[in-house]
Amino acid sequence: MSTQPIPEQAAEPVDFERYGTIYHPRGDALVAAPAGEDAYPLRGRVARGGPFEPDTGRYHLYASLACPYAHRTLIVRKLKGLEGAISVSLLDPIRDGRGWAFREGAGQTLDTAGNGFRFLSQAYQASVPGGHYTGRVSVPVLWDKLTGTIVANYFPTITIDLETQFDEWAGNPQLDLYPEDLRADIDELNDCVGEHVNAGVYHAGFADNQSAYEAGCQEVFESLDWLESRLDRDGPYLFGNRLTEADVRLWVTLVRFDSVYYGHFKVNRRRLVDFPKLWEYARRLYSIPAFAQTTDFDHIKRHYYGTQLHINPAGIVPVGPELDWRL
Description:
Elements: H1 16-19, E1 59-63, H2 68-80, E2 86-90, H3 121-125, E3 141-144, E4 149-152, H4 155-164, H5 183-198, H6 200-205, H7 210-234, H8 245-261, H9 276-286, H10 289-292, H11 297-307
Parallel strand pairs: 1-2
Antiparallel strand pairs: 1-3, 3-4
Helix pairs in contact: 2-4, 2-8, 5-7, 5-8, 7-9, 8-9
GO molecular function, one term: glutathione transferase activity
GO cellular component, one term: cytoplasm
Keywords: Transferase
């Protein structure tokens, strides 16, 4: 069981010279999970009758405004009106080899869950026997304050649990982002978007040879063309007039596309603004407060350009682009 709250503590400043980056750590920085090892081994679910029962005030999100996968959870939390039921800490967008850290600043916080963690890796170590964790230290994390352990770091299920298990305490319980009659279709579309758009930009951006890069670009733009046609036919959302989990998952990549992926990852055949339906769709979502108020372009750009030094060695963060997100 959890103990008395520990005073909030800040991590030491970022130090690339001493600790390297998360992609090339140095010194006593934690090494990432070996190839082939499950990067998301913590896959608990919130459900009645299980070890993690739905409740208000029991769960805490460790998230980042910079990371698209964590951004999803912040959007869903706000869409459903769960701010009073599920607390949150926001991590520093800049990571050295020690990974995600708690530091004070605009759009980021210390560990407000009462654990006194300075680095997110400490939450992972506290959640496995002997404190020996070898998987990926990633966000989002759903933390159980009652038992003092991580429920899940498996991002595909965290938003679904937020959408389906907390209506009793939600400000907007009538909003069904994962309706039963569409679940099979949503899951199928999420699998496609997840592999070819959400991860597709990384296939191109992290490619280490020309053919892999071109293949990554190809899958992204073929998928965007298909989504453009789908919205033209079935919009305004991916499932007609119904806002769903699928829209949240796609949008976090679209909102980063022109600011980061087009330049930093060289996914630059076309910009998002060059897709009329996708650009209109992205701006429509941005007009919803839960999307706009959880979006921080400063965090997004500093995270990618300032952390992925194997792609951008000088760490220079671009001043643009200037985009008008008004619908």
